[in-house]
Amino acid sequence: MASEMFLKYGCNPNQKPSRVYVENGDLPIEVLNGKPGYINLLDAFNGWQLVNEIKRATRLCAATSFKHVSPAGAAVGLPLSDTLKKIYFVDDLEELSPMACAYARARGADRMSSYGDFIALSDTCDVPTAKMIQREVSDGIIAPGYTDEALEILKSKRKGTYNIIKIDPDYKPDPIEKKQVFGITFEQGRNELVIDDNMFNNIVTNNTDIPYDKKRDLAIAMITLKYTQSNSVCYVKDGQAIGIGAGQQSRIHCTRLAGNKADIWWLRQSPQVLNLKFVDGIRRPDRDNAIDVYISDEYMDVLADGAWQNIFKEKPPVFTKEEQQAWLAANTDVCLGSDAFFPFGDNIERAHKSGVSYIAEPGGSIRDDNVIETCNKYNIAMAFTGIRLFHH
Does domain 176-267+328-384 sit in CATH 3.90.980.10? Predict the structure, then answer.
C-alpha cells in the first residue's frame, strides 16, 4: 500500500499533473491490473460506496454499473427469470451466481448507458461474474476480492490492460471531506445517512400499505440516488434500478428521462422485441443500439430497405405506438425515489405512466398537497423521508 498514486492525467489529457492521495495512512486500494485514470477512480469509489450500502440495507450482494460519475444501473443478486436472462443476453451462460445475477441486472437495465462502464461489486468477484464481464465493453472493476480464476479471466480483457482494483472493505474515511473548485477549498461532513426500512414509515397518502419488498426497492432507489449527480430520480422494480435520471436542472425532466428508460426496459421484454432475429455475428453494441432504435420514434432507421438486412435475418414488423402502450400498461408495482421534493403533481402523473405504485421523496414543497392529491388519484402509496440526497 502507498499514500499516493500518480495518474496519466486528470479529467482530460491536458489536465496534468494528476494524482490521488490520502493525507494520513495508505490508500485503501490495490491495483491488481491496469492503470486506472482519474474518472475511473471517481466511478470506482462512488460505485463501491453504493454497493456497500445496498448490501448493508438489503443483506443481499449488490452490483452497480457506473458511467461518468453516476450509476447507469444498480441491483441486488436476486435470481433472473428466463425473460430477464434473455434481454440481458446471459441465457447462454451455464452458471449464474447471486453476484453474477446482480451484475447482469445492473448492466442490463440500460445497456446503452452501461457501454464502457466501471463496475463495483459488494462481494468477491467469482468466475460466473468474471465470465459475464469478460465479454462486455468495460473500463474496469472494483471489488473487495477476486477468486484466483476470476482474476485471471479479468486480466485477459483489453489485451491485458483491464483495470482491476481491490479495495479494503474495512476502510473508513474521515468524517470531514474536502474538494477544490477554482482554487477554493470546500469542506463538509460526509453524507453518512443510513438508509433502511425506517426511512419509509411516514406515509402521507390514503394508501398506507408499503410491503417489505417494496421498502427494499425504495431503499435501493434512495441509496442509488445518494451517489447519482443531482437532480436525480430513480425507478426500481424487483431489486434493480430500471431507470435513472441524473444531472437534470428540472425535476420533471429528470422524472421523464428516468421514466423513459424504465419504459424501454419494459418494452425490451415484449414479444415483439424478444422475437427479433438478428443476423449471425452481429456485435453486441450494434444489437443493443438496434433494439433501442426499433422501439423509438426513429424505428425506420433500422427497418428501411437496405438497412434491416444488415441487422435482422428477417424484417420485423413495426412495433406500433398502440402496441407499445398496451404492453406498457401491464407494468405495475414500480417504486420511485427522488433525491429532493417533487414541486408539482406533474411528476406523479409521469411516474404513473411507467407503472409507479410506491414513492419515497423528502417532502417539504409548498405544493405537497397537490403532490399527495395526485398520488391519491392513482392509489399510490408515498412516504415522506424528510431527507434530501443531493450529490455533486
Answer: no
